[in-house]
Amino acid sequence: MPGQAIDGEPEWAPGVSTVPFRNLSRAALVRTSARLNLGFDSVELVRIQRYYMRAGREPTDLELAGLAQSWSEHCSYKSSRVFLRAAFGKLQSARRVLGTGDAGVMKFEDGFAYALRIESHNHPSAVEPYGGAATGIGGILRDILAVGAKPIALADPLFFGPLDRAREQLPPGVKSPRYLFDGVVAGIRDYGNRVGVPTVTGGIYFDPQYVVNPLVNVGCVGFLPRARLLPNRARAAGDRLVLVGGLTGRDGIGGVSFASRELTERSETESRGAVQLGNPIMKEPLIHACIEAFDRTLVRGLKDLGGGGLATASGELVHAGGFGSEIDLDRVPLRERGLLPWEIWVSESQERMLLDVRPNDLSALLAIFRRWDVPATDIGRVNRGSIERIRLGGVAAGTLDVGFRVAPTPRRRPTRAPRSATRRPRARVPDELLAELIRDQTLAPDSVSREPVIRVYDHEVFGHTILKPLQGQVTSPSHGDAAVLRPRTESWKGLALTVAAQPWACQEDPRGGGRWVVEEAARNLYAVGARPDAFTNCLNFGNPEDPHVLGQFAAVVRGLAEGARGLDFAIPSGNVSFYNGGLGAEIPPTPVLLATGIVPDVRQCTSVDLKEAGNPLYLVGASRPELGGSLWARRNGLRGQPIPPTHPARLRHMGEALLSLARSHALRAVHDVSDGGLALTLLEMAFGSGLGFSVDLAATGLAGPGLAAVGEGASRWVVEVDRTLVPMFERQLRAEPVARLGEVIATGGHFRWTDRTVADLDLSELYTAWRDGLRWT
Amino acid sequence: MRRDRLRIALVSIEGTNNDEELLAALRALRVPAEVVQLKQFEGRDVERSQRRDLFDFRVLLFPGGFSAGDYVRAGAIFAARVRAAVGPSLEEFVRAGHLVGGICNGFQVLTELGLLPGRPDGRMGRPQAALMTNDSGHHECRPTFLRWEGGRFAPLQSLPPGERYMIPSSHGEGKLVLSDEPGARLEDLERTGQILFRYVGPDGGPAEYPWNPNGSVGNIAAVTNPMGNVFGIMPHPERSFYRIQHPDWTRKGHPEGPGDGHLFLESIVRYAETHD
After folding, report:
1. Which of A463, A486, A611 faces B251 most closely, judged by CB atoms?
2. Beta partners for residue B177, in sequence order
3. How far is B185 from chain A (nearest CA, A)?
4. Are A776 and A184 in contact (CB under 8 A)?
5. Strand-pair partners of B34
């Protein structure tokens, strides 16, 4: 009976129960874990049993709930840690990194720094797209805030099944891609716009492999004076632990366990309660109040309350500082009555942070939060030693060694090496009916304009978005390669942001695909005039207990590291999302990057749209015949094709040459060649300008016009060069593979093969169809 | 009054999230503007040094955002709180002829207070208009062009009417709808010179969607009260303060220069410093 002393055991607080554990067989332990929805495997259960045998007592439900949060895959990275450490451990670029806490922190200029982080909110969004996407933003904002930074931009890469997939074709319990897409976009819009942080970049990808398990990743960049950089650890014994922000309720209980297993047809009914409720109008003043408290140096360390709630945040905060804690759960302000102690401990209610505050600073800190009408409560203290004591009304509810609780032993699960890339004979792109082929590619769901979505997100709040997600003339904007922010109006220095993902290449060749994604990010950054600086990655994969999946993971991570080394990217933060899939379906390996670049002077930025008829168009970078992962291969259902090789170090060399040309204003427009190949690249450049182009596809050196138009390999850009500066351009790039494609003309998309016309497109009609191709309701 | 003494308050509550760029723009104009939480006027939960009085300021601006989440009609909650906290002083402030402006959500707040389109005596009261959900049914973040209609708004008197400016929009509820007899009300506003800006197309002609992003009556983007000292504007002049914030600066050049919104804010500041 709760509250009553059981034979030789401590007396526990009301509402706390003990769970018989010490005398159970391994099979009985597994049953107990399943019954209580704890998600431990048998190895972990035995370890826990041993701990309590040494302690000479049974665990409380609160202790087990806390352990289950911290030992989940979602919080502990137990399956991925060994690979990440080996691959990302030693990068030259680490010298630019200032912090690797809840968010990575990079040097910017003079005393300023920026923070970046991306993570997934896949499973919540699969059952409740609107709320799942909204709280995904809420979570990433807190990660940025938790290093002392103010969030300044959001990025939203999204992956869905085909929007026209009929309901009858969906597996039981799976929601239609159209419903998920509409809900996710509305969730991002309503949370992002209300909280007042611009959504400046992202991506929308469609593939049948995302029908069961869509991916909703969300990235954020923050900005801070370097002096404000804060650690995610407690600083001194005796400091107070102050819980600030939203009230604690029953939402989001078990969210991390939900994220750490595959979806099933019952996910909707069983796990709806694991989805949290977001409140941007609590978050907005919470950010203000926190920044004010940081600026007045009233906060010494902090942690956001995300997966695992107070249990994870308090445990990690004090453990990182080498301390223990004492927490009074009855002081936690609640939204509803009747919460059990363990529910308070692990609730993932949103908009909360835990601050480490000097006792003497407490009253000044509380005054700030009072003025902002944000609840702030002193709930405990940092203690010497390594024990966490959780109490209610002064009576114990749990007492654990915090190191044991928050740091599970990393797992070394078996991997199987991915099969080699080339399995089928090389496909041949037809050279006939090229205009129809280009039209089909341009109007494919993956290619059509994202304007209908971009316009519902406020991408300009704060007024620092100086190269926008849509670029070109106001009457016909086109997709840019990257957005550029100017964080300080006192300076012309800029920060470029871009999202890169190529799951199809990763599926054909995980390691090469990993490199490809990094290259794509770098190409996007160089295109706008930015030097690659850092990326944060969200690694979305299937079940890591499947050696094939973990083998793909290991190979992708290796490829990402190779790309980062060659292009001098730092990797100061990241997130792993396993268990994406279920009902027999598996997602392709989907590493998603949010990459940043430094723009020395934003006045030299180049946009994607063509500028002036008569200027020459050049292709920079060597063309390749491989088609693996390309839009054309996907539309023709071709798998097992080799992907184009990548050479990150060589790409860097070309990119540096482009930067130097941008400084001399020799480049009028730049666009990287990616999805859809050279043809779609040229069309996007033309769409944004109202101008046209005339090009000779034979300049690619490829076998025929079809391949030249749609091939995507690799490491290439199309650039419009100021016609008075052609000699400078050619001199600067004389050691690189450069081909003159043709020139900008007044109207029309004219493709030749030497002197024969192979496609002649009416761009105004095609533009309208492309612009209106994606319906969002 | 010297510009460096011209105090401008940006009045905010939770969810007022466009104060930062407006503050930056005014500071770039060398004005000691400050963000003031409504509670600082009430004196509730604030330290003595942070208390403020409306009459400490020359100009009051209500910035954009989603005050209190705008979960009911946009601006309605903020307006109710303003009325309760400082209603009589605000009325006095307006009747004294000081400038009061609202941008985006601020326009919605002043409309809910009944200060816009407003009464000849400058009193608050029942709303005479509403800013309703855009015809598209959703948020619209896009460049818009505004034409100065040569109305009563004193700060712009030196500018030639018909001039066109790129001032971007970003709102979900910006469709101006007039109450009672809307047709007659629209004619009244035109006659009394209360129409400050209309949306126009990129070629300067009448605006259709998306150039009128919300379906506002008469393509109205901004209005003033009959006295011309209270204004509300849906688009964001603070977001085209610098030329480099314009969406097409990479085509048109001159990234160093001032943007179209600069002129509007500069006119307000110049008017306030010369008209005590």
Report:
1. A611
2. B130
3. 31
4. no
5. B9
CB–CB of A196 and B46 under 8 A? Answer: no
Tokens of B255: 């990234």
B139 and A471 in contact by Cβ < 8 A?
A: no
pLDDT band at A74 (very low <50, low <70, confident <90, very high): confident
Residues of B in contact with A454 (CB under 8 A): 141
Question: Distance between CA atoms of A611 and A693, rounded to whole angstroms?
Answer: 11
**Chain B contacts to A (CB-CB under 8 A):** 14-15, 17-18, 20-21, 24-25, 28, 37, 39, 45-47, 50, 65-66, 68-70, 138-143, 166, 168, 170, 172, 202, 236, 238-239, 241-242, 244-245, 247-251, 255-256
Q: Identify whether the C-beta of residue A698 lies closer than 8 Å to the C-beta of residue A708.
A: yes
Q: A577 and A77 in contact (C-beta within 8 Å)?
A: no
Concatenating the DSSP letter of every residue in A9-74 gives SPPPPTT--B---TT--HHHHHHHHHHTT----HHHHHHHHHHHHHHTSPPBHHHHHHHHHHTSHH
CB-based contact A93:A207 (threshold 8 Å): no
Interchain contact A475–B (C-beta under 8 A): yes
User: How does pLDDT run across A403-416, given as a tens digit for each residue?
Assistant: 999 988 888 888 98
3-state helix, strand, coil in chain A (%, to 5): 40, 25, 40
Digit-coded pLDDT (tens) for A120-145: 999 999 999 999 999 999 999 999 99
Whether the Cβ atoms of residue A333 and residue A375 lie closer than 8 Å to each other: yes
Residues A456, B138: C-beta atoms closer than 8 Å: yes
Distance of CA A537 to the CA centre of its chain: 6
The shortest CB-CB distance from A370 to any of B21, B45, B168 is to B45
Do residues A725 and A666 make contact, with C-beta atoms less than 8 angstroms apart?
A: yes
Q: Among candidates B160, B173, B158, B180, which has minimal Cα distance to B232?
A: B173
Whole-number Å distance between alpha carbons of A333 and B153: 50
Q: CA-CA distance, A501 to A514, in Å (whole number)?
A: 9
A217 bridge partner residues: A120
**Residue whose structure tokens are 């597994």:** A30
Number of A to B CB contacts under 8 A, please give it. 118
A74 annotated active-site:
yes
Contact call for B141 and A463, based on CB within 8 A: no
* A464: annotated active-site residue: no
Any idea which fold B3-274 has? Rossmann fold (3.40.50)
Which residues face A390 on adjacent strands? Answer: A327, A398
| Cα of B74 vs its chain's centroid, Å | 14
| Gap between the Cα atoms of B269 and B263, Å rounded | 10
pLDDT digits (tens, 9 = 90+) for A149-180: 999 999 999 999 999 998 889 998 899 999 99
Beta carbons of A284 and B15 less than 8 Å apart: yes
| Cβ contact B37–A371 (<8 Å) | yes
Domain boundaries, chain B: 3-274
Spans in chain B with pLDDT lower than 70: 276
Of the candidates A118, A130, A131, A312, the residue with the CA atom closest to the CA atom of residue A217:
A118
